Amino acid sequence: MQHFDAELDARGVPCPLPLLKTKQALSGLAAGQVLRVLATDSAAPRDFAAYAEATGHVLLQPEPLDGGFVLYLRKREDAV
What we know:
With 80 residues, the chain is an alpha+beta fold.
């Protein structure tokens, strides 16, 4: 099981709200900390991968979870 510092439950939340809520949650974390996101949006793995690439955060391996996904984002090291 992946270590995480905070969790966001975005199950049942339609796109693009999971990403918007993730951005807000990441702003409260220190550089290098990990956010665990629970999402049921089928586009979440693709959307989170694109978000990570665009922002410099690290998307760790997504995991399936009861009709959805568990996604882990590590906040980029140089973030304030």
